[in-house]
Each structure stands twice: as structure tokens, then as C-alpha cells.
Amino acid sequence: MTASDNTISDTLLHWYDEHARDLPWRARPGEPAPDPYRVWLSEVMLQQTTVAAVKPYFEKFTSTWPTVDALAAAEEAEVMGAWAGLGYYSRARNLAKCAREVAGRGSFPDTEAELRKLPGVGDYTAAAIAAIAFERRAVVIDANVERVVARLFDIRETLPQARKVIRARAEEITPEHRSGDFAQAMMDLGSGICTARAPKCLLCPLSAQCEGRKAGDPAELPIKAPKKSKPERVGQAFWIERDGHVWLVTRKGSGMLGGMRALPDDGWTAQQDGSAEPLPVGEWNRLGAVKHVFTHAALTLSVLRYEGTQDPVEEGEWWPLDRLDEAGLPTLFAKAARLATAQSG
DNA sequence: TACTCGTGGGT
DNA sequence: TACCCAAGAGT
């Protein structure tokens, strides 16, 4: 630890004391560390997800399940339904599993290494919980920290190879005390000032110490490998309506949208177009299509309404149309359902 | 390591 | 509009 490194964390913590965002899962200045349950829940929700998107879900979860014991006692289907729309549904599956583990052992583990063993808790989240909830010294590295550190030290190596150097630098500037506040300060800085595009260097408390700024244009850091092209897939979803109810299935497995309630479909995946025949056989009326873009594929999903009288073969349930908003459909199928109900009234 | 896995907002 | 991106984890 050099004198220069101390200046970075001290400067940033002073800035944080004045400018920290007031977020529902955070302690206010001067308050003790927040409830580990709320820290864990927020950190999982925030994985690859914006603060604005998380807020209403965090409020819903904490009001429905105020403690990890309450969440552990919930039906997994209830948890999946409550998560619907937030994306990356493996997080919800692991959330339920993790809650049961923690409830079984009585409390959250309070070290980074033990936290790391919990399902859905990786390197970042373990460090964040240890630092923020348990006030342990931990080096917390997320995409914000990567960006800020790459710019601070003018690291021009390409990601992901640059991660080793970035971690070493982050280790050097992380203070022994208040490392949780330091991590959250880095995230606030990355979110509002040291942004991916058009960073506001004139407002940055670290601008005088930023090697990337001295070297030229910090906005080009970190340098990332080129992205793969995104395949375009087509599929079909089936709208089977009877007596004010629609037939819904629950998707199997841990793959895409696994565990989520959904419209029956033709088996499309991110790797392949759908191919299954509409079941039960009969007359189908194409209502239209919805487009939806996933991380690694774009899907055009045609919605076909069943006009016959046979019963569905696939396992599922008749869901009342007037409570469709409570079905917990992921956004893709919510779009498809909206299309169908708009036409069939 | 490289790929899979959602969604909504910003530019 | 068509990208890019966001408090990553699991495999």
C-alpha cells in the first residue's frame, strides 16, 4: 500500500459520504451495517440488472418475505412468479435454494469463503456481502470496478485477459476499513460519473489521479473483445383458450426460462428454430407475432390460436384470463399473451 | 475459457 | 434504428 493508493480510497470515501445514493437496501450514513438478507437479496437481483429495474422487485420480495426464513418457507413457484420479468431466472431458482440452505443452518455465513459456497453466490456477490453486511475487508469487483480501475490505471490490455491486472490494482486500492463503502462508492462512481459512454470526468473526484485521463480518452477503456453476432430464431407459441381460461405450462429444467410458467410452444431454443407440431391437432389461427431479443439470440414468436375442441395433451393448467397478470409469465410470453388477448378480447 | 442465460434503458 | 450495456453465476 503506497501513499498514492491511500489517497484514492480516502478521496473516494469522502466523496461517497457526501454523494452516496440512497437505496432501499443500503444503510444510511452512520447507521449500522444492513441486514445480510437484504444485502444478499439486492446483490443477486442486481446481477446484470439495473438499479431502476431492481427497486420494485426488492420492495415486493422484502414485503412478501421479510426474512430469509420466510423466503425459505415459500413455494418455489411463488418465488419464480414473483421474479417474472426480472430475467436470468436461474437467479430465482438459486435464490430459493440458497434461502433454504441459510434457513437450515440458522443464519448467513459471515466470511467471503463460506458465502462463496452458497448457490447463486459467485466471487463478486460473496465479496460484496462480506464487505457490506459483515464489514469484512473484501475486494469487490464488478463491471463498474473493472471500468473505473482500467481507466484509473490506464490498463489497455483487452478484457477478459485484463482481469488479472485489474484485480491486482483493485486489491491495492481497497482500504482495510470500510471496504464495503469503498465498493459501493466505486459502483456509484461507475454508475453516475465514470460511465461506459461519455464519462463525466469534470465531476469525478478521482480525475486528478486518473492515468487514463492523462493518457487521452478514458472512454475507450476498458477495451473489450468483439462480440459474436446474434442469431435470429423463429418459433411458435400456442394460445389455447376455453371458458375464460388459457392453457399454461411450466417450463422444465435449468435452460432458458426454466421453471417459469409459459405458453406452450414448438420447442424453439436460442440454438435452433422451433419444429414441434401444434398439439392437439386441429385448426389454428395465426394471430400475429412478437419479437423479443435475448442476450444471445433474437426470436420472432408467432402466436397461434387453437380453434378446435380437443383437450391439450401436454401437462399444464387452465389459468383464468382475468388473473393472467398474476401468472408470472416472463416478458416474452407476457408479450404473446397481450397480443392474443388484444385480439380475442 | 467460452458459452449460456433476460430485460429494459440509453445513445 | 441498432446497437451497447447493467452490482455475474454456472457449466
Automatic annotation (TrEMBL):
Q: Which cofactor does it need?
A: [4Fe-4S] cluster
Q: Which SUPFAM superfamilies does the record match to this protein? A: DNA-glycosylase (SSF48150), Nudix (SSF55811)
Return the SMART domains for the record: ENDO3c (SM00478), FES (SM00525)
Enzyme class at the top of the EC tree: hydrolase
E.C. number(s) listed in UniProt: 3.2.2.31
Q: Which residues form the HhH-GPD domain?
A: 45-192
Q: Which UniProt keywords apply?
A: 4Fe-4S, DNA damage, DNA repair, Glycosidase, Hydrolase, Iron, Iron-sulfur, Metal-binding
What Pfam families would the database entry show? Answer: HHH (PF00633), HhH-GPD (PF00730), NUDIX_4 (PF14815)
* PROSITE patterns in alphabetical order: ENDONUCLEASE_III_2
Can you name one GO molecular function term for this protein?
oxidized purine DNA binding
- What's the catalysed reaction? Hydrolyzes free adenine bases from 7,8-dihydro-8-oxoguanine:adenine mismatched double-stranded DNA, leaving an apurinic site
Co-factor binding comment: Binds 1 [4Fe-4S] cluster.
Q: Membrane-spanning regions, if any?
A: none
The protein's superkingdom reads: Bacteria
Q: Name one GO biological process term.
A: mismatch repair
For this chain, the family text in UniProt reads: Belongs to the Nth/MutY family.
Q: What does this protein do?
A: Adenine glycosylase active on G-A mispairs. MutY also corrects error-prone DNA synthesis past GO lesions which are due to the oxidatively damaged form of guanine: 7,8-dihydro-8-oxoguanine (8-oxo-dGTP).
Q: Which PANTHER family match?
A: ADENINE DNA GLYCOSYLASE
User: Could you tell me what this protein is called?
Assistant: Adenine DNA glycosylase
Native species: Altererythrobacter epoxidivorans
